[in-house]
Design brief:
CATH topology: Alpha-Beta Plaits
Structural class: alpha+beta
Strand content: 5-15%
Oligomer: single chain
Shape: globular
Order of helices and strands: EHEEHEHEHHHHH
Helix content: 40-55%
Length: 229
Amino acid sequence: METYAVITGDLVKSRKIRNEDVESVIESLKECFSDINHFHLNGKGKFELYRGDSFQYLIPEPQKALLIGIIIRAKLRTYEPKYNNSSQNKSKKPIKYAFSDARIAIGLGNMSYDANKVTESQGEAFEKSGKAFDKLGKNNDRLLIATFNKEINEELETECLLADAIISKWTASTAEAMYHHLLYDKNQYELSEILRITQPAVHKRLSVYGNLKSIQSFINRYNCLINTI
């Protein structure tokens, strides 16, 4: 039976983002999904936003799921929306800026029912993605992968923790460089033209701050493992 990947995710602390900033973050997420579908999935992926800040992405090529999940987080981290102060905070301190981000749970398995809406479809991939997403909520982690192989799951869980530690430190400028490189496969010269910075500055954002070598190594290892199951 054919294997699919399902990404279940939601925006981190979305309810604390100022209303005027939420729309731009959501719209950028929709654009990101469309670009991924065009450049990586030949238009065959299906995505849906629901409950305002949650989303699901059905991916017919499971070996691309991790790359897509990282691209989504890179896109979101290019934004620095303003966050409202807590209602319990009486000091009226200035609103702080924080990077937008998402929890990403990837589930692999079959699809028993393909509905018009992604959120109404059913199958092992959806079940594993949903359970992984629930686990993320309990542990406050932001990346997890669940397959139907226990040993592979254990390895990927460790690697997800290490990758998350890297991604969570990306600034907006680093995330922007990583996003264009991973989504559009732009080289350093092309990125220097797009970002209007020097090639050494691009190299620094990708290699030093983005830790591209480690991220790419994780993606390659994931692909290798997925091709064995």
